[in-house]
């Protein structure tokens, strides 16, 4: 990142290592200032004059404090006092955060890194960071977007080409019809020719052509349907698979309703657009050219009259395209909000019932539904107010043809049959033109869906698999070496964590809420990659393992047990679909689940209901433990696994957990410190750092952070006891 | 204070007596508060309803050594502070919540891929505000408060679009809110 973006007057680039501008003073007034860093000093300039000078060595820590509308760069002196160097708007935040990281590294190691990586590439058009994408997903050419979509037809090109040929063939058949009509009028009707044989042959030909067109029509429908279904299926599967592979941080940014809309709604819209409109585009373009050619050959003057209004119509629809696109984006947004609310309410139906807020939720849903309906109406209304007018302008040519064609007949320059043939072709010409007029509407709608689908398909945020990722069995030894991590790189949640967990050891992680306990577990599971440092399993960097292989050897039991809608058996087998029934029962027995499952009328085939709501909290938890144990993991992670259970159930679960963790490396988080009594050692996190790491007894003797936590918890328990006694 | 009193004190909103508060600016950018003979360092001020009330219901808080959030109390209305104290507190809040006010929207362009380019006149000058995911970052809250957050995280607002913006601005933003 470029950390030399602006200099105070009189200061040369070579004189400083870093120089960044700041733009606010401590009264929120706009100012022009600079913060420069040399190899030993921090210099703060205001209006090009040196205001303050600090020595870097006097500071122990540097950080960027992000406020709501602005940010500050702060340094902590070794004496403990904090200094705010400058205040700036958010556009400078990332650069200052990077600068703080470098200075902080210097404060820790005594090494000042002056070479900083290149700036994150930005889109030359809109200036937004590319975030790993090859081209700006927001400014990408829309035609390119549709080319990408059309390429998805490739596996089914055989059927697509058959459908295309059939449609072209059908169009050719219909092109012959006006010619036969002309022959009937000019050769038989007008001269009152009584050669009935010829007359009936021509009439028969008309009927025959109509009947013949059924064959290509039927084949076209069959092939188009096949292409549409398969392409839609592929698209849905790809979007779903990609959203499953996306990093946890990328997925959690989107609501479930939004992802559902992208997987089903948008993919379905594109399926019909590409297969129907893509094929029709070719057919309609060929029809347009062929009909124009026929009309100009027949009578170029009349043909000119026909096409004169057409450019105006196309100009009008081109103008409409943008308006329609914006309105359809609004429709998309409102429909997504609608889906998210629906998903939310249905998922929280137990809460709704418990609080008796059904009417409130119905009103809420109605509001969103109404908003979505209104957005649809507003999108369509512009179209339907404009298009009848456009169609009228387009058909003006037809009236002109009738006027001048009629005069030609009266003057003997044209036969009646020829005029009928000509006007029939003109009427046929309006079909492709009408199609092209309507395409901006369809195109706008599909473009919005395409952009949403490709936003998921082209997401680059997934955790990268190493080139030669290893799929090996692990024994369960874990080592963290100077691990730093922040959900945002500039704001570390975990700092400099170093610890070694031996194979088969049980480690309890304790600390205040928000200190980073669950984050540490997420790193061991490799749901995120460390910002700095290394996590080693059996001496090998966690990033060198194949993700699937690694996670298949880790068992997880969380406080919020999520069961999928299916049977008890399906849920236990989730991590090992090929498990035998004996293995399932064994896992259930270890998890203390077998007894209650046996008592259920449908045994292991009992459906657990949506999210397992047909079971009690303790029962769900025991199934989760069975699920964690069935694939014989080498590492077990317990995240507040017994926090929401009553004492009796907790006893049973603890018993099950005892069996689960036996001989396996276990990392457990528990708010109630007594739950971790079986832990071999305890890792105490404080302010994002590993404050203590020892056995319970040693930590109690030390009177440190852990001792404080235990004492605080004892006081709370005592207070509760006194309060309850007072109430009795 | 007995254990019971202490435990029940937690659910009471402690409205601070503004006459007994003395805020001073710290070099750290935060505040020092002296009240009832006690001194609190690195005090943070938070607007409890930042969208609707800029000078009422201000939480006065700090983080203790264990990084726990401790609320000293709440200022019900900053008008109760002396002029000098009002200025000190207001200065901090103004830069913490620094948000230029949008006074006019000249045009809005959408690039069909979820981004908006809003040409606007703001109290920080004329801007072309680039917004990604506009359906999240260009929102009308409660029907009249326009909240805007650009691609770099800068925030803008208009507290009452009907009152502050002209008809042309309202027409320009109508399709996007």
How would you sum up this structure, described in words?
The complex is a heterodimer of chains A (728) and B (177). Helices cover 55% and strands 15% of the residues of chain A. Chain A has 728 residues and is α+β, with helices and mostly antiparallel strands. Among the domains of chain A are: 13-109, Pleckstrin-homology domain (PH domain)/Phosphotyrosine-binding domain (PTB) (PH-domain like, Roll); 152-311 and 393-456, ABC transporter type 1, transmembrane domain (ABC transporter transmembrane region fold), CATH 1.20.1560; 473-545 and 676-728, 3-Layer(aba) Sandwich (Rossmann fold), CATH 3.40.50.300. Chain A has a six-stranded mixed sheet, with helices on both faces. A four-stranded antiparallel sheet of chain A has the order 1-2-3-4, with helices on one face. A four-stranded antiparallel sheet of chain A has the order 9-8-11-12, covered by helices on one side. In chain A, α3 packs antiparallel against α4 (196-212), α3 (157-189) runs antiparallel to α12 and α7 (256-298) runs antiparallel to α9 (310-347). The radius of gyration of chain A is 36 Å and the shape is extended. The model of chain A has no long low-confidence stretch (mean pLDDT 81). Chain B folds into two domains: 3-96, no CATH class; 102-174, no CATH class. Chain B is built from five helices and eleven strands, in the order αβββββαβββαβββαα. Chain B has helices spanning 3-9, 83-96, 134-137, 161-164, 167-174; strands spanning 22-25, 31-35, 38-47, 56-63, 69-77, 102-110, 115-122, 125-132, 138-141, 145-149, 155-158. The longest helix of chain B has 14 residues, at 83-96. Chain B is elongated and about 55 Å long. The chains are: A alpha+beta (728), B alpha+beta (177). Chains A and B meet through β6, β7, α9, α12 and α21 of A and α1 and α2 of B.
